[in-house]
Amino acid sequence: MTSTIRIRLEKPQDYHAVEELTRKAFWGCMNQPTCDGEHLLVHKLRNLPSFVPELDFVAEVDGQLAGHIIYSIAGVITPDDREIEVLNFGPISVLPEYKRAGIGTALMRHSVLEAQKLGYRAIIFYGHPDYYPRFGFNRASSFGITSENGKSFDALMAMPLYDGALDGVSGRYIYDKVYDTDPQEVDEFDQTFPPKEPVVLPPIKLLTERLPENAKRAMNA
């Protein structure tokens, strides 16, 4: 693909188009015949205190929306009950016709640089452990950071945004509960979009079944 990818901040007039983009990007993915609520998640996140508008980016190709990434505030609860603020991102969405065209990579690299400029400490999220290290992520367990219930997953990834940012930071990772979507609410929200046929899925893969929900979402980037 030779077209130029332009990254810019999302605008209010983009909101519905971005939700449609997100729905298309995740339709039939992660062993779901439709969309598993990622479009609803984007819709709701924008209205929450945890939303970071300075890191809410869209990607355009030839003037058309092709991708989107959204960030929110998360935290690490230390053994002495301090909460250390970090960033979480997701969903990151790319239209199917633009997959493998560098759009997800462009969104990641741009947003990470902007997060550094804004002075944030680190990014922690659930993502594919074989994909995201190319951007500088490592297993969160290497920093002494676990899931909220104290478990370690390879898919729980972390990246300090400046030297020593996670030195001495260990504990349980927490994120906004908006990520725990309600199936009925997802179905009701999806009715506001044009009808779309469910995808006939291949057999479910055991590895994907075992991943936390946020990790499954990250795998679609």
Fold topology:
Layout: E1 5-9, H1 15-26, H2 38-45, E2 57-61, E3 64-77, E4 83-94, H3 103-117, E5 122-126, E6 138-139, E7 145-146, E8 156-160, E9 171-174, H4 183-190, H5 206-210, H6 213-218
Parallel strand pairs: 7-9
Antiparallel strand pairs: 1-2, 2-3, 3-4, 3-9, 5-8, 6-8
What does this structure look like?
This protein is α+β, with helices and mostly antiparallel strands and 221 residues long. Strand 2 (57-61) and strand 3 form a beta hairpin. It has helices at residues 15-26, 38-45, 103-117, 183-190, 206-210, 213-218; strands at 5-9, 57-61, 64-77, 83-94, 122-126, 138-139, 145-146, 156-160, 171-174. The mean pLDDT is 90. It has a single domain (5-218), classed as Gcn5-related N-acetyltransferase (GNAT) (Aminopeptidase). 24% of the residues lie in helices and 24% in strands. Helix 1 packs antiparallel against helix 2 (38-45). Strands 1, 2, 3, 4, 7 and 9 form a six-stranded mixed beta sheet that branches. A three-stranded antiparallel beta sheet has the order 5-8-6.
